[in-house]
Amino acid sequence: MTDPKHKVSQSRRKFMRDAAITGGAAAAAVTAPGVAMAEATESPVNEKPDEGYRLTQHILDYYKSAAS
């Protein structure tokens, strides 16, 4: 026969262990995409520089719909 206090203690330990594992996995998942994106955003040296803001038909359509 198991002691009820022992059963509660084991349950709490399992909860704390699972919470720690989940927290560690969440922290790893949050930081991993940031590292991958930092590498992907580096542009090659020979790439044409941005030309700045351009008023395209798509943007004009958006302005017209936003004004309504």
Order of helices and strands: HH
Uncertain segments are none
DSSP E strands, number? 0
- Rg over alpha carbons: 27 Å
**Helical proportion?**
over 70%
Put simply, the count of helices is 2
Q: Report the major sheet.
A: none
The chain-level mean pLDDT equals: 76
Beta fraction: under 5%
- The helix/strand class is mainly alpha
* Cα end-to-end separation: 74 Å
Shape: elongated
Task: Offer a quick outline of the entry.
71% of the residues lie in helices and 0% in strands. The protein is an all-alpha fold.
Question: What does this entry look like structurally?
Answer:
With 68 residues, this protein is mostly helical. Helix content is 71%, strand content 0%. The longest helix has 37 residues, at 4-40. The model has no long low-confidence stretch (mean pLDDT 76).
